[in-house]
Amino acid sequence: MSESPKGNITGLKPLPGGSFEVIRDTPVDSSPRGEFDPQEMRKDLEDLDLQMALNPPPTDFDVLHAQVERPVPEPPSGISDFSQIKDLKRPTDIDLPPSKIIQPGSPVPNPSAKIELATEYTPREERSTIPQVLNTYVEDLIKGGLSRLRLLKFDIEDVKTRENAREIINKYKTTGRITEDQRKKMLDLLEGSSEDMQEENNTEGNSIKEVEADNFIAGLRNQIKTAESEKDETKVLRLEDDLHKAEQEVLSVEAREAEKEQYDLNKKKRADIKRSITIFKKNIKKAEIDKDEHKVLKLEDAVHKAEHYLISIDKELADVDAKNEKIRRTIELNEQIGKLDEQIKIQTEKVRVVENSDEKAYREELAKLRAIEDEKKALTKTEEPVASPAIETGSVDPIKDWEWSEMGIAYLKQTAIENGVDMSLVDASVWQEAYDQIMSINSHTGRVSARDKFMEDLPRVITNNPSPQNSELPISIPLDTWPPVLPPEPPLDIPPPIDILPPVKSPEQINAELESARSDYAAKLIEWKNKNRENKYKFKTLISNLYKSAKNVTSDLGLERQMPEGKRPQKLMDAEGAYMEAKKEKNRQKFSESTDREVKNKKGEVVGKYEFNAGLFDQARIEFDELQKRIAESLPPLEKGIVAKSLEKWAKVPLLARIALTTTLMTGAGMLFGTVAVAGAGTALAYRGARSLSGAIVGQVIGEAAGEILEDNSKRRIEKARENYASGIDEHNFEEKEKELMRFYDKEENRVKRNRLKKAGVMMAAGVEGNLAFSTLTDLAGVSVGTSIDNIRGDRPVVNSDAKAFGLSRSLEDFGKRGPDFSKDINLPQPPEAVSPVPEVQVELSQKGFIQDIHNMKAKILAQYDGDVDKIPEKIKTNVFGKSSMDLAKQYGFYDPKTGMSGMGHAGEHLSVDADGHLVYEHGGKADTMFDSETGKVKTFENVGGTMFIPKVSPEVVSVPEDLPAVDVSAPPEVAGSQPSLSVESGEYATTPGSFKSSSIDLPQVESTTHYPFQNGIVDVLDKQGESVVMFRSTEIGHESILNVDGKPHKIYSLPDNLQEGSNNAPYREAFTSFFQKNIDLSRFANKMISQDFEGGKVHILRGLDKSDPMGVRVLLNGKEIGKSIMTSGGVKVEIDPALKGGWLFSDTVYERALKSLKPIIKTLQFK
Amino acid sequence: MTDILSKDLVKEWGLGSLAPEKQADIVDRIGKMIYQAVLVRALDILSEKEQTEFDLLLDEDTTTPQDVLAFLQKKIPTFEQLVLEERQNIKESILVPTV
After folding, report:
1. Looking at chain B from residue 2 to 61, which residues have their Cβ under 8 Å from any Cβ of chain A?
2. More exposed terminus of chain A, fewer Cβ within 10 Å: N or C?
3. Residues A963, A968, A970, CA angle at the centre, nearest 5°?
4. Residue A268 and residue A270: Cα distance in Å, rounded?
5. Could B39 and A646 be called an inter-chain contact, meaning their C-beta atoms sit closer than 8 Å?
6. Could B14 and A610 be called an inter-chain contact, meaning their C-beta atoms sit closer than 8 Å?
7. Residue A1114 phi/psi, 5° resolution?
8. Is the pLDDT of residue A61 over 80?
């Protein structure tokens, strides 16, 4: 729906055919000027009608008296009549729709009058059916004075069909603007000129060339018909192909011509509008003189709109001009490049001539050639190709293939043939493509009708260049060979291209980056772990609340729910990625430094997918330890303790058992660790076969160490000895072989200098230790063994580093230090300056048991060397001090943990040690060394005539030397048959059977320690300068406190406040309770006592602690007094210590809860 | 010692070029690295109570590394995957692709 016209109707304008155009009084455009809207412009111009402006419309009166002629405005100077203005067009001529008119018969114009188009808009190309002779006749009438027929002239030109023209002529007669004769004449001219018009069309619409092209196409069609009748399919195909190309060409040429026509039309439009504007302006001046404001406004508006329209046309023309300018520049560029190509050709020939004759000239000519080529490249790079004549890759190059004629016509060059290419072999499409470009250029530049040129060439091109499918010559020449390839370039002094390598980093840079990446990753990992712990706590709380709110579902849910493992944050993964990259960089460096890159077997075959590299492994291990150390530092105590203990367990397991486990971890085969024990057993079966090899390992290690420190001759001897040792070794003779090797090394020792002998002494000690370690492998299948092969080889230092990282006790570290370190194969510790004499120690067996006796013996030995462990002979130090008293007791069969039996000693019998560190059991007047030198095995207590028994617990006081090295902290209660325990007299420390006491040089501030087994752990009571502290898992779980009894203070123990509550502290309360019950007898202070379990601990209700108040009650929670009874009017009431109250607003404290739990008891106070 | 180390293990970890005793040594060290890495990661997953339980288990003298791993395997459903990942991490750190 179009919008209703604005403004009041002021009149009607008569139009040809008897219709009228509505005239309104306020057509002034209210839109802001300067903003061009094509749509608005078109609408406005539709209303405006330039002719109306040039020929002012009649007044209302005029409408009623249409014959009244209006004064004709002055035409431009020099022109007597507007109809004489050449190319003066109606708006419709500039592609504007015609004006709206009112159909005849509308008696009274009104705003709602139906408005419709008088005629259909007729495109210019369709306005060719009206004979020119009619136009000429009308023009003659106008010139004869009937200026009113000017509109008729335009209308006739504008109509689409003769029928419309006839209708218009009749209307002109009806309105009286023409006479009947004139009407008839016009109709005759219209009807009788159809043939003339046809001829006219033939001569105007189709050029001769077009007719030739049409004829050519028609000929092709006829040929196709003929070929079809002859059933020559090949020919039909070829001809159809040619026909298709010809038709396409005609179409494309027509399209280009239409484009050019549009350009010309725009030019004409522009001239028309400019002329109109000039006239408008003149009329404005005239209207101003006449003081016709309405007319002035109207004309000004018309000027304004026309100027806008002019701008839009200018823009279109400018675009085309710019395009043409680009083409022009391209043409110039192509010309330049073409010239350079010619020069290149010539220069190439020059180079070829001197190539093999004159090297100097050759180089000069070659340099010139390169210069020309560079110039061409520069031209090509600086200029952008133009869109229309652009050449696609692989198509014809217009630079080479077309040129300008003297007449300025672009046409295909025939020089391609001269370049050595037979154009007859070239596909016609190549030509066609070239012509496309030529046509484009020509049409844009407007120099010539390229169509003519093409039409001339088309038949020849197609005839001379048949389609490939029809040609006997199979294929067209690839375009990239056109022009022909130059001969191979001679060697130049231009350096070959250098591969761009990444910048090489220095080792320092790599290390710094690795350190940075590691730190970053460790920080983010720790942060994530901490966050994880925090979430874990929240999760636990959540589950706990769930349990509280949903009773009886606990069992369904399970008490312990693990928090699902969350996704790692992106920043952590990024840091991990960066760390991995840094490690790889470092590894690359290491790998490049290493020499063992090949991983082939003896046959030269590649073994495995990956290569093990010692350098990389060492680097990876260092890196691993660094990261683990960082992580360990951030672990909370409980986790740190777990890791430390787990690693300790690992270190204690013999090598072969570890390998069985490692195999599972490294291959993932049979990853059921419940069944690993079976694998371990399997490994034990292999032990007999493997032990000889294990001996070989130790032997080799020792040999390598010795070889490092001895002279070359000695090396050869050692190698020979090792060969002898390795040959024929089996499970039966390995001990003997080993001894032979040891003897050999003994001899070797005498051949080196004294300082080297010392190192050799250490080496021998290691050998002996290794020998002993093999003996312990009988417990391979999982029994805890104190010393094993891994203690001899490289693991001990690793354990130490781990122990430091995870907070293992100093004693363990010291233990590690005492042993030799072969972790790096040759890394011998410094031995003592002089070999110490064998100590003469002898301890009499006591009722305290063999463990205590061994302990005593160690103390005596240590005392002989002034408490300095380093002064003790290596063998004794290794064999005696390198193991705990418990382990020694197990090793020598004084104690069997499986049966719980202990060895029975008798008064007067002694225990001592020989020079090799073997225990000697002196009994019945003889001394049995508990070692079989022939078999290399330890003799057990029973082997030397001892008797085993199951001991009973008897509380006795332990008395041990104060300065004994504390390595024995794992005494179980089973061996207490002869174990001492402390007793308390006069309110002193209460002790109980099953404990023993020791002192430590590792913790000098601790004067003595008493150990109490608890759930396979140890509760320690440390005596520090007269004060006792109870420790469990490195946590203080008890300290001394005072219980006033009848006015006298008595020392007891109480649990620290921070451990009184919290489920996580329950184990500490349990340990404390165990210790408390064993050591503190509260019942002896009170006349009555009630005990009750409370949250892992104990609550005690004591009555009669004071003689003055025999019925008074006091309540203790884990040794801490938390409440007492008071007399009230209602009777006895137990009140909490006010200091322990939590307050009204807070939940009950543990002390309040404890008292509340006692309510039923306190009410009755029924003491049993 | 070659009887102890499986051929698959030697092949997988590219230890074929090493002397048997060196192989055992390396395997032992790698095993410990995996063991430690698995432990530290497992602690992130165990609940507080399970950690306490784990700690008590470690207090027992007779507890072995096998028991440790069995405990973790029992408590952590994805334990095998965890071991696999740690093994792969270490493998990537110490091995160089040759083919």
Report:
1. 2-6, 8-18, 20-21, 24-40, 43-52, 54-56, 58-61
2. N
3. 150
4. 5
5. yes
6. yes
7. -130, 145
8. no
Kindly report the number of other CB atoms within 10 A of residue A547's CB atom: 15
Q: What's the token pair of residue A974?
A: 């089973």
How many whole angstroms separate alpha carbon A153 and alpha carbon A93?
Answer: 13
From A11-25, A426-440, A1040-1054, the region with the lowest mean pLDDT: A426-440
pLDDT tens-digit map of A1055-1104: 998 889 888 888 889 999 988 988 888 888 888 888 889 988 999 988 88
Are the CB atoms for A968 and A886 separated by under 8 Å? Answer: yes
Residue A1116: the pLDDT is 93
Interface test with A, best of B8, B18, B59, B62 (most A CBs within 10 A): B59
What's the rounded Cα separation, in Å, for the pair A350 and A364? 10
Q: What is the pLDDT of residues A342-359, one digit of tens each?
A: 888 888 888 888 877 888
Contact between residue A982 and residue A1025 where contact means Cβ atoms under 8 Å apart: no
Alpha-carbon distance A578 to A1131, whole Å? 75
Cis bond before residue A466 (omega within 30° of 0): no
Query: Which of the four pLDDT bands, split at 50, 70 and 90, describes residue A1054?
Result: very high
End-to-end CA separation in angstroms for chain A: 110
Based on the number of CB atoms within 10 Å of its own CB, is A642 exposed (0-12), middle (13-18) or buried (19 or more)?
Answer: buried
A19 within 8 A of A104, measured Cβ to Cβ: yes
A606 beta partners: A600
Assess contact for A1122 and A1112: CB atoms under 8 A: no
Q: How many residues are there in chain A?
A: 1168
List the beta strands (DSSP E) in A1015-1119.
1017-1024, 1027-1032, 1035-1045, 1048-1054, 1088-1094, 1097-1103, 1113-1117
Mean pLDDT value across residues A166-191: 84
> For A172-179, which contacts have Cβ atoms below 8 Å and span 24 or more sequence positions?
A172/A16, A172/A17, A174/A18, A175/A14, A175/A18, A175/A66, A176/A66, A176/A67, A177/A66, A177/A67, A177/A148, A177/A149, A177/A152, A178/A141, A178/A146, A178/A149, A178/A152
Per-residue 3-state assignment (H helix, E strand, C coil) for A945-1012? CCEEECCCCCCCCCCCCCCCCCCCCCCCHHHHHHCCCCCCCCCCCCCCCCCEEECCCCCCCCCEEEEE
Q: Which residue of B has its CA nearest to A1019?
A: B59
Which of left, alpha, beta for A206 (phi over 0: left; psi -120 to 50: alpha)?
Answer: beta
Mean pLDDT in residue range A945-960: 54
For residues A883 and A879, what is the distance between their CA atoms, to the nearest angstrom?
7
The secondary structure element, H or E, covering residue A725 is helix A712-726
HSE, side-chain direction, 13 A CA sphere, residue A1109? 15
Q: State residue B35's pLDDT score.
A: 92
Of A560, A645, A686, the CB nearest to B58: A645
State the complex-level ipTM: 0.92
Structure tokens belonging to residue A256? 């280009």
Q: CB neighbours of B32 closer than 8 A, spacing ≥ 6?
A: A647, A650, A658, A662, A795, A798
Name the percent of chain B in helix, strand, coil, to the closest 5: 70, 5, 25
Tokens in use for A891?
Answer: 């090793």
Which residues have C-beta within 8 Å of that of residue A359, sequence separation ≥ 6? none
Name A1029's bridge partners: A1022, A1039
Distances (CA, A) of A42 to A56, A91, A261, A445: 21, 10, 22, 30
Closest of A981, A933, A984 to residue A954, by C-alpha: A981
CA dihedral A473, A476, A477, A483 (to 10 degrees): 120
* CA closest to A898 among chain B residues: B62
- What are the distances in angstroms from CA A127 to CA A93, A121, A496, A1020, A1050? 11, 10, 71, 120, 132
Tell me the pLDDT of chain A averaged across its residues.
Answer: 64
